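Hi support team,

I submitted a single chain yesterday and got back a structure, but I'm not sure I'm reading the C-alpha cell output correctly. Could someone confirm the output below corresponds to the sequence I sent? I've pasted both exactly as they appear in my results page.

Thanks,
R.
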Amino acid sequence: MFNLMDEKMMKNTYPLKSNQTMRRIGTAAAAIVLLAGCASTEAPTEQMAVSRAAVSNAMGAGGNEFAPVQIKSAMDKMDAAEKAMAAEDYELALRMAEQAEVDARLAAEKARSTKAQQAAAALQEDIRVLRQELDRQSK
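Hi R., thanks for writing in. Yes, this is the structure output for that exact sequence:
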C-alpha cells in the first residue's frame, strides 16, 4: 500500500517538475533573446579614431609615395567605414575600420622599409666613393 501511494505521488510530482523545467527553459530562452537584442553593436568610435590615426601616420610615413596601393586601400576602407557609421551599420563600420587600420599599418611599414633600404643604398654608395678616394690617394 505504501508503494502504491509513492507511485501516485511520483506521477503527480514528475509532470509538475516537467512543467516547471519547461517554464524555466522558456524563461531562460526569452532572457537570452532579450539580452541579444539589447547587446546590439555599439558605434565603434574608438576603432574609428584608431584607424584614422593609423591612416594619418601612414601618410606621414610616406605611404602615398612608397605604398600607394596599400594607402589607397586603407583610405577606401576608411571611407566605407564612415559611410557605414552614417548608416548606423556599426558591424560593417567596425569591420571596415579594422581593415583600414591593418592596411594603413602595412602602408606605413612598407614606406619605412623602403626609406630604410634607400638610406642603406645611399650609405653603400658613400662607402664605395670613400674607398675609391682612399685608393686614389694611396697610389
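A quick pointer for reading it: The CA atoms of residues 131 and 137 lie 10 Å apart. Let us know if anything else looks off.

Best,
Support desk
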